[in-house]
Amino acid sequence: MFTVININRLKIYLKKNKQKIMIIPHVSPDGDAIGSTLGFYHFLKALGHQPFILSPDEYPYYLDWLPDIEKVYIANQLDTSQLENLFWNTRLIACLDFNAINRAEGLSEKIMESSIPILMVDHHETPEPFADMIFHDNKASSTCEMVYRLIETLDWLNFINIECAKCLYTGIVTDTGCFRYALSERVHEIAGKLLQKDIQPLKIHNSLFNNNSEERLRFLGHMLKERLVVHKDLRFAYFKQTFSDKQKYHLKEGDSEGIVNYALSIRGIDLACYLTEEDGYTKFSFRSLGEVPAIYFAKHFGGGGHHNAAGAKTHDLTIDDAEKQLVELVKNNQHLIHLS
Ligand SMILES: [Mn+2]
Questions:
Q1: What is the pLDDT of residues 23-37, one digit of tens each?
Q2: Ligand 1 centre and the CA of 33: distance in Å?
Q3: How far is the CA of 306 from the centre of ligand 1 (A)?
Q4: How many domains does one find in the chain?
Q5: What residues have CB less than 8 Å from 304, skipping those under 6 apart?
Q6: How many whole angstroms from 96 Cα to the centroid of ligand 1?
Q7: Any residues with CB less than 8 A from the CB of 126 and at least 6 apart, and which?
Q8: Does 262 have pLDDT greater than 90?
Q9: How far, rounded to the nearest angstrom, does the alpha carbon of residue 115 sit from its chain's CA centroid?
Q10: Comparing C-alpha atoms, which of 68, 40, 21 is closest to residue 168?
Q11: Backbone angles phi, psi at 316, to 5 degrees
């Protein structure tokens, strides 16, 4: 469903001179979250505003080459007065690539307490009604696609400069898994328009995917050899990453990203999960093929996302309990998996 609310009001805001605008991606931001916030940031700057990005936590290393990423503020590294300063005099808060306010984690309360108008641009299922202005389509490939479409709706496409185009292209590439998922004629058309800005796509691909540290690759080998569990009869496979794995391989933000897809790539496997033991909580990252609803399994543990890619986080379960419950859940829902 495509939802557009109060975008005229947004245009009126943006026609004013030099507005201080806060842009927020979701916690543990990925390529689409950072690509869309930075893309929107470059667009707003070109339009003459004073935007800045405030991320709930650190962004992954594989995005550290994006233009102006060093200017992103990391909320959990700031003290209270620094945060106050950022909120002070802000005229608009743009929430990008999430639609449940708790995805802003430590910032959620501050956002809701402030009386600053909120814009939501997103493509995840079932948006919560916390925003004053909404540009949402759960059929879109990525929030970067949505930012492009928003700029088009505002009739300001000429303000997309090369920096903006690089960021938006990056989010489209990462969220579609290099043009494999959630494809449409529209997303290829938009990618084509971005290429016209001379963004050197091969360079972007190399920066994203040929940029592994040796340690990350050794870690991948360890996960594949020691931590992959395959239940062929359930058409289900998962990884279990413990806290000691994280310490042993000195994992950085983003190091475990995408590994779940190896489990999904096994013949006869239609549902995969990556379980992560963190300090005080357990994380689930689900992927599925075709009609199999990854989102159903994420929702069971209080999470959300997309039909084929979804996640959850629980403070109530140890990783061992989470693993047991997960396997039970998959066993009890075989009708959702044996679809074809
Ligand atoms: Mn996204």
A1: 999 999 999 999 999
A2: 6
A3: 9
A4: 2
A5: 100, 124, 125, 126, 295, 298, 310, 311, 312
A6: 9
A7: 99, 138, 304
A8: yes
A9: 26
A10: 40
A11: -95, -15
